[in-house]
Structure formats: C-alpha cells, structure tokens
C-alpha cells in the first residue's frame, strides 16, 4: 500500500475537492495538501476554512499553466512556512462539472477537462508521481429505465453530453499515460454526489435553495430520470482507499446503491421541508439528457474492502437541507445569477 505524504489536490476549492481536503485533514492529519484551484464560479477559498494551516498550502492558479504546475512539483513554489516533503501524489478533481453549462459553451470543458488533465499528466510523468484521476459514471452514457443492468468497469465508453465527452477524453488520456509512459495511475468513476458545498446549479442544492429563497423548485421534464446518489463523504473514503490501496493502472467504480428518480427526490425534499408534494414547476428537459445511471461497485468492495457508511438517503438529504439552511451567506451570492441563466435556457 501507498502512504502519501504530500498530495497536490487540484480543484480542492470546489464541492467534492473541498470535502476531500476536510476529510483527509480529519482522518489522516499527518498528510500535507497543496490545493491548486483557479477559483472559477464553482470554487471558493472559504470552502477550505477550518482546515488546519499545518495541513494546507493554497495556490490560486490554473491546471493548464504548465509552468506553475511544474514549479509546484519541483517544490519551488512551496509557500508554507513549515518544511513539507515534496509532492508525491496528485488527486485530480479540477474540472468544469455541469452538464447544462457544457451545452451552452463547451470550450472551458475542453480546456480544463482535456488540456488541463494533459498538463498534469505530463508533469506527473516528469516527476514519476502517483496520479489519481476523479471521473464520473457519465462516461458510460446512460442505461434504460426498464433494465436491471448497472455500469461496471467493463462498460463501453459512450458519453452523451459535451461535459461527459470531455471527461471520457480525460479518462482515455490517463489510461494512455499509464500504458505508454508507465505513469502510476488509478481512476475512479463515481455516481452523483450530494452534501455540503455543492453549487446551487446542481439538482439537489438548487431545489433546497429555491424553497429557502421562496422560488418554486424546477423539475426537468417528467422527472423520471434516475440518478444513483452517494454521500460525498463516502466518495471521499473511496478515493482514499483507491489512492492508497488500489492497483496501479486500474479503474474502480464508486457507488452506494442509491437509485432514485428525480421526482421522488424532489418529493422527499419538499416533504422534509414541510411543503406540499406538488409545490413545484415542470420546466424544459435537458437536450440529450441521460435517462439512468447505476453503479455496480463490486470490484471496489471485494478487492479493496470499501463499504459506504451513509446509506440512508433520506437522512443524508435532511442533513444536507440543514447545511443549506445554516449557510445562507455561502449560497445566496450565487443564487440570482444561476436562476437567471436557467431562466434563459427554459430550465
Ligand atoms: P465543482 O464544479 O464543484 O468544482 C470544480 C473545482 O475545480 C472548482 O473549485 C473550480 O474553481 C476548479 N477549477 C475549474 N477549472 C479549473 C482550472 N482550469 N484550474 C484549476 N482549478 C479549476 O465540481 P465537483 O462537483 O466538485 O466535481 C469534482 C470532480 O468530480 C470533477 O472532476 C467531476 O467531473 C467529478 N465528479 C463529480 C460528481 C458530482 O456528482 N458532482 C460525480 C462524479 C465525478
Ligand atoms: O433544476 C434541475 N432540475 C432537474 O430536474 C436540475 C439542475 C437538474 N435536474 C435533473 C437533471 C438530471 O436528470 O436532475 C438530474 C441531476 O442533474 P445534475 O445535478 O445537473 O447532475 P447530472 O447531470 O446527473 O451530473 C452530476 O453527476 C455526475 C454532476 O453534475 C456531474 O459533475 C457528475 O459527473
């Protein structure tokens, strides 16, 4: 097994990245982390508030900046006062992550998700550094609503949206750098995450904050699309498991058997927040929207012994609602702009 001492966490000021930094600082306090984040609309420095200074170096910058990335890996850019060991692993979260945005303009998706991943792979190769790539089940396209099948590590790549296609491209680059250059890589493809720090553009936070802001929730189409929900905490523990004990060159699917259709999730949110179950609007569906995602995580469970801890989805939703209630000043600045953008898309 591998015991990282200093991890470069790209996109560590975003939703899952920030949760991962908090998780590592809590569970493995001997590990230092350098977060490299461009602080796009989706990243906030304050997401890392509370992480002990001894665990964290924050660098505001872009993963496409090859010189900056090189300086971090060669230790030239070490801003932390205390001596820290050289970076010995990259955990790569940084991405443009929202499907609806990729339909409006795919160009930042190609830059960050494809070129940015390439820049990091080249730097990792020069320094022979362990590389864990964070990816998504969306690279496999979708499943039908009326079948039992789930995605496995052997499912064919068949991405539907510009976002998914850019993530699929990044997966292929990682696989090629392993096969051709011998880079020590692992990949995880996870299903839909929920939890604190998720941007209000995403389904669950959008509906919660709509209700809190006095706006009716918005359901795409008939709400029959199915997503396989996992607590972001469980995703973080899976990433740690794969980074430290995963086999080099392998892909692991991450999921926790949390399949629900969108209308059922919305009904749960409305009920938990004391609203009428019909108190929402139907809006335009997403062009080309995927029907169903479902993960078979057998490989991760049997090979590495990972088990999810937060499997009561309703309890997880209730905790997430509490978090957004208690953090209005965190999400409110993004709310009006996000809703205005959706209004123009008929969402
Ligand atoms: P997010 O949009 O909340 O955060 C992305 C972070 O990356 C932000 O902090 C942003 O500032 C940063 N970033 C963007 N472009 C950058 C660049 N060029 N250079 C440096 N930093 C940049 O995304 P998220 O939901 O936390 O997703 C993180 C990763 O997990 C992504 O790779 C995504 O594809 C993957 N993933 C997400 C989910 C999900 O349900 N959210 C599920 C599976 C996989
Ligand atoms: O207001 C909404 N109403 C609605 O019905 C929004 C924003 C979404 N939806 C629907 C569309 C999808 O069927 O909810 C479902 C989930 O939508 P998103 O939150 O946008 O997530 P999804 O498209 O499934 O992608 C997410 O999971 C996989 C993440 O955003 C990706 O980064 C990850 O790769």
Protein described:
It is a single chain. Helix content is about 40%, strand content about 15%. The model has no long low-confidence stretch (mean pLDDT about 95). The protein is an alpha/beta fold and about 350 residues long. The longest helix has 21 residues, at about 105-125. It has a domain at about 5-200 and about 230-255 and about 295-310: NAD(P)-binding Rossmann-like Domain (Rossmann fold), CATH 3.40.50.720. A seven-stranded parallel beta sheet has the order 3-2-1-4-5-6-11, with helices on both faces. A two-stranded parallel sheet has the order 7-10. Strands 8-13 form a two-stranded parallel ribbon. The protein contains eleven helices and 13 strands. The protein is globular. Strand 1, helix 1 and strand 2 (about 30-35) form a beta-alpha-beta unit. Nicotinamide-adenine-dinucleotide binds next to helix 1, strand 2, helix 4 and strand 5.
């Amino acid at each position: 097994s591998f015991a990282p001492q200093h991890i470069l966490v790209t996109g560590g000021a975003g939703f899952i990245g920030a949760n991962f930094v908090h998780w590592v600082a809590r569970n493995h306090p001997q590990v230092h982390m350098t977060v490299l984040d461009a602080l796009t609309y989706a990243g906030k420095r304050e997401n890392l508030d509370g992480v002990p200074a001894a665990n964290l170096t924050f660098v505001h910058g872009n993963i496409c900046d090859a010189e900056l990335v090189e300086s971090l890996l060669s230790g030239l850019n070490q801003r932390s006062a205390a001596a820290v060991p050289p970076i010995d692993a990259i955990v790569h979260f940084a991405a443009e992550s929202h499907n609806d945005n990729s339909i409006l303009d795919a160009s930042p998706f190609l830059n960050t998700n494809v070129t940015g991943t390439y820049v990091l792979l080249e730097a990792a190769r020069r320094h022979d550094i362990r590389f864990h790539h964070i990816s998504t089940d969306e690279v496999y396209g979708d499943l039908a609503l009326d079948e039992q099948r789930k995605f496995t590590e052997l499912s064919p790549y068949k991405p539907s949206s510009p976002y998914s296609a850019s993530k699929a491209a990044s997966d292929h680059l990682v696989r090629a750098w392993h096969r051709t250059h011998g880079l020590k890589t692992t990949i995880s493809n996870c299903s839909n995450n929920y939890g604190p720090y998720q941007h209000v553009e995403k389904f669950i936070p959008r509906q919660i904050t709509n209700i809190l802001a006095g706006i009716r929730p918005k359901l795409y189409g008939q709400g029959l699309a199915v997503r396989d929900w996992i607590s972001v905490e469980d995703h973080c523990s899976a990433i740690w498991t794969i980074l430290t004990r995963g086999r080099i060159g392998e892909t692991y699917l991450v999921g926790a058997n949390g399949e629900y259709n969108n209308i059922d999730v919305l009904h749960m949110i409305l009920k938990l927040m004391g609203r009428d179950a019909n108190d929402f609007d139907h809006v335009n569906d997403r062009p080309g929207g995927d029907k169903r995602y479902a993960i078979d995580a057998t490989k991760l469970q049997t090979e590495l012994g990972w088990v999810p801890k937060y499997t009561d989805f309703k309890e997880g939703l209730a905790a997430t609602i509490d978090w957004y209630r208690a953090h209005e000043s965190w999400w409110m600045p993004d709310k009006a702009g996000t809703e205005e953008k959706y209004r123009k898309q008929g969402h």
